[in-house]
Amino acid sequence: MEMRNDDPVTLDMPARIWAGIDAGIDNVISSEAENGDEAAVEVGLRIRRAGWDQVPWVNGAWPPMDQVISIRLTVAEWTFAADEARHGIPIYEELGDDESAQLGRDALAVIESIGR
Q1: Residue 25 domain-assigned?
Q2: Could you tell me if 81 and 43 are in contact, meaning their C-beta atoms sit under 8 angstroms apart?
Q3: What is the 3-state secondary structure (H, E, C) of 9-74?
Q4: How many separate domains does the chain show?
Q5: How far apart are CA 25 and CA 70, in angstroms?
Q6: Residue 65: its pLDDT value, please?
Q7: pLDDT for position 116
Q8: Which residue of 9, 11, 40, 70 has the fewest C-beta atoms within 10 A of its own C-beta?
Q9: Residue 116 lies in a domain
Q10: Residue ranges for the chain with pLDDT beneath 70
Q11: The predicted structure's pLDDT at residue 108
Q12: Burial of residue 73 (number of CB atoms within 10 Å: 0-12, 13-18, 19+)
């Protein structure tokens, strides 16, 4: 059965990968706010809020980076996050930020597991 854009999907990943996704979406929100793309800003904010609500905070702090967490977004929101990661990887590589580029690749691997 084919998934629709509004279908919710829960993905499990280490908190480190979600932290990278969250940071990438934060960058998108900032740049798209400057560019006047209100729709992209709204999607980005919705994704970040969903993450904040679902991350299992530990005494008000981010969980250990190797802790596996579950995040539930719609297919469209996961697609938005994957698109951001795809866009960001070559930028991070050009900057010599290998860790961020790898986080983007790791995020893509998790997100692209949807539908498999």
Answers
A1: yes
A2: no
A3: EEEEEEHHHHHHHHHHHHHHHHHHHHHCCHHHHHHHHHHHHHHHHHCCCECCECCCCCCEEEEEEE
A4: 1
A5: 17
A6: 95
A7: 60
A8: 70
A9: no
A10: 1, 115-116
A11: 95
A12: buried
